[in-house]
Amino acid sequence: MKWVIESFLMAVTRRSKKWRLCNSLATITRRTLLAITKDGGNVPPPL
Asked: 19 lies in a domain?
């Protein structure tokens, strides 16, 4: 399941003209998912 999200984010990042914004969003999403996975879902998103 994780590789599906990764490949989707990579595809979106490549196709987007605002690739820097997508890159930062992908990084935030990945960190949020990692935090939720590690701490059992009790962590708010880092915004």
From this structure: yes
